[in-house]
Design goal:
This protein is mainly alpha-helical. The chain has helices spanning 23-42, 59-64, 69-95, 100-112, 116-126, 128-145, 152-175, 178-209, 215-271. The protein is built from nine helices and no strands.
């Protein structure tokens, strides 16, 4: 009669920062900071030649002349920076305490030597997402060794299933908030373009009025258009770099998971014969 036990849920060994789930509040805080700076520091009369705030005398006053779209773009830029820091801290925890390539190599060496106690010890020392998944796979390996009356192919499939389930459990932590950064890639450009269009509308309105008295309005409109264009492009640039960097980090971790999972399954298949 076949005997088997239900696989236990993989035990989390990750310690440290694992990500911010309430990303909405990060956006709110960044918006509050951006609008506060815009209406206090950037709008201070010390950055202008007179109290009418028509002629800026430094870069802060020039930024203020970009109009109300500027703090919106600044909110997006601060969100990109905050999300990038959040992802860096979360992935640092996910990768574990040691170098990931070295950990994978040590695990494969322990498997080749059939030293599963050593492999488990390496997982306990490494921690992080890869170590969690490897530990779950090792537990499934031990469970299949104690199971009788089941074909070897089914046991290997069970080990692979345990590995996949543990991987899926870790993936939300790895990819969390990356879609927001991806959205900001486009949103930064579009918001900057909106500010550019608004600035050009003001410029052409000043031109249509005619007369030298409207030269200040023409200058203000052009300034608003260029400032919003610059900040919009800068925000999208930061978002693209951040998204690609962290996506690459997640891909490396995923490849490491697949490599170790395959090694564990192949080790079982090589070390065990089909039961009679």
């Amino acid at each position: 009669m076949a005997t088997s036990t239900k696989a236990a849920s993989p035990k989390k060994k990750s310690e440290g920062f694992t990500g911010v789930r309430g990303a909405f509040w990060i956006i709110v805080v960044c918006a509050i900071i951006a609008f506060t700076l815009f209406f206090t520091w950037f709008a201070d009369v010390s950055h202008f030649s007179d109290e009418t705030k028509e002629t800026p005398i430094d870069v802060w006053g020039t930024i203020f002349k970009g109009g109300i779209i500027v703090p919106v773009i600044h909110s997006l830029l601060l969100t990109v920076i905050a999300m990038s820091i959040e992802r860096w801290l979360a992935l640092k925890t996910a990768f574990g305490k040691g170098a990931l390539p070295k950990f994978v190599a040590n695990i494969k060496a322990a498997l080749n030597a059939n030293d599963f106690a050593k492999a488990q010890q390496l997982c306990d020392q490494q921690r992080g997402s890869v170590a969690n998944v490897v530990s779950a796979s090792l537990n499934a390996y031990k469970e299949m060794e104690a199971t009788t009356g089941v074909k070897k192919s089914q046991k290997v499939a069970k080990i692979q299933q345990a590995h996949e389930e543990a991987s899926q459990l870790e993936m939300p932590t790895l990819t969390m908030n990356l879609p927001i950064i991806a959205t900001l890639v486009t949103l930064g450009t579009l918001t900057g373009l909106l500010g550019t269009v608004v600035g050009m509308i003001k410029s052409f309105s000043a031109l249509s009025a005619g007369g030298g008295a409207d030269s200040a309005k023409l200058s203000a409109g052009i300034s608003e258009a260029l400032i919003n264009t610059a900040f919009g492009i800068g925000t999208s640039w930061c978002a693209v770099v951040s998204y690609n960097y962290f996506t690459n980090k997640v891909d490396k971790l995923t490849f490491a998971l697949d490599e170790v999972g395959y090694s564990i399954a192949q080790t079982y298949e090589a070390n065990h014969t089909e039961e009679a």
